[in-house]
Design a protein that fits this description.
Two copies of one chain form a homodimer. Chain A contains nine helices and no strands. Chain A has helices spanning 14-43, 46-52, 57-63, 67-86, 94-109, 112-124, 133-156, 166-186, 193-208. The longest helix of chain A is centred in the first third of the chain and has 30 residues, at 14-43. The interface between A and B is large, with 45 and 45 residues. Chains A, B: Residues 22-82 form the HTH tetR-type domain.
Chain lengths: 211, 211
């Protein structure tokens, strides 16, 4: 009797194959995060990533065309979370945006693997020949532009002083986020990343508020 | 006649051999900076570094015991410059220390290869199994402790408000330095690193000064 019925309801159906493919694709992405975090792009190997997923390299190449393709797919997925947090609804105020930035730091504390991968790859990618160089340049430009726009909207609403150097403030915010992450990934127990970031942003907001 | 006299004055003398050895050792260190910056530790190879220096791997191993030894030697030398800048004379004031920090950022603009290497390696080294993990943890702790001491001295001299959270301020300063460097190595033409750092430090000093 067990032989006669399909082993799972979805088995063999188009939707079932699809779901299996999705799960395998996600497993490859999750495994790639670990490998890129530990070894960087150059020393990571598709063969080892495939082996860690229990599939052949040919099986992996069915989902991702090349190591470059896998790298850029991992980065795109890792950014999705930040985008949903930061770019979703326009915040009501600069203070609300800053609270979102702190919430993102809290999220990052719960995903150290992604934070580690980010810093391994962004360091390598300073080299213009790196396959993620253009990606990271564009990602930083996107986040900076978005931050500058939100600060400019704050100036327009009278929350921030007229003449605020929004680019300088935006670059500082990004820098403090990155720099605190480096301190935290090196020695997680030694620094309360969201609290330090909140302290910085509270002071920045006071400094930039109209007298 | 040319055959009879030594080809250089130092040739064959103990000092001459020494100088040749020093120059070769320095060439290996400089080449290793480039390789570690581009490839990271794991994907760099002693054979390729030796080849780029025009020597054999055996010749390289005469100067450095292993790839780990070469890595730690490169990092120790790269830190020397910062140490001389930052740890030399105790600064007269917090403002003088901040000026030194900005001067260091100006130095770093003139040595992009070292800055790139730093960020490639510090990213990888978040992994506790990395051969430079302990080194970077200790380096950050040293620089933070030193910064906190200088800020505390500023509080004691009345330059900074009593009750200043010197660790928070120290971590912010390190974070802004690192974060601006990441923005700069990705897109050097887009950010004036020393000017941005000066802007941040000027504001921090105003915020921490007694009312």
């Amino acid at each position: 009797m067990a032989q006669d019925r399909p082993r799972t309801a979805a088995k063999g159906s188009a939707r079932g194959t699809y779901a299996v493919g999705d799960a395998r694709r996600q497993k490859i992405l999750d495994t790639a995060v670990e490998h890129f975090a530990l070894w960087g792009f150059h020393a990571s190997s598709l063969a080892r990533i495939a082996a860690a997923c229990g599939i052949t390299q040919g099986g992996l190449l069915h989902h991702f065309r090349s190591k470059e393709d896998l790298l850029l797919s991992v980065l795109a997925q890792s950014e999705q979370h930040d985008v949903e947090r930061l770019f979703a609804e326009p915040p009501e105020s600069v203070a609300a945006h800053f609270a979102t930035v702190v919430a993102l730091a809290e999220d990052n504390e719960r995903r150290p693997g992604l934070v580690r991968m980010f810093h391994t790859l962004v360091g390598e990618a300073a080299n213009p020949g790196h396959p993620a160089h253009a990606y990271f340049r564009q990602r930083y430009a996107r986040v900076l532009d978005h931050t500058v726009e939100l600060l400019q909207a704050g100036v327009a609403r009278g929350e921030l002083r007229p003449g605020t150097d929004c680019e300088a403030a935006g670059r500082e915010i990004l820098a403090v986020m990155d720099g605190l992450q480096i301190q935290w990934v090196l020695a997680p127990a030694s620094v309360d990343m969201p609290a330090r970031l909140r302290g910085f942003l509270d002071r920045l907001l006071r400094d930039l508020s109209p007298a």
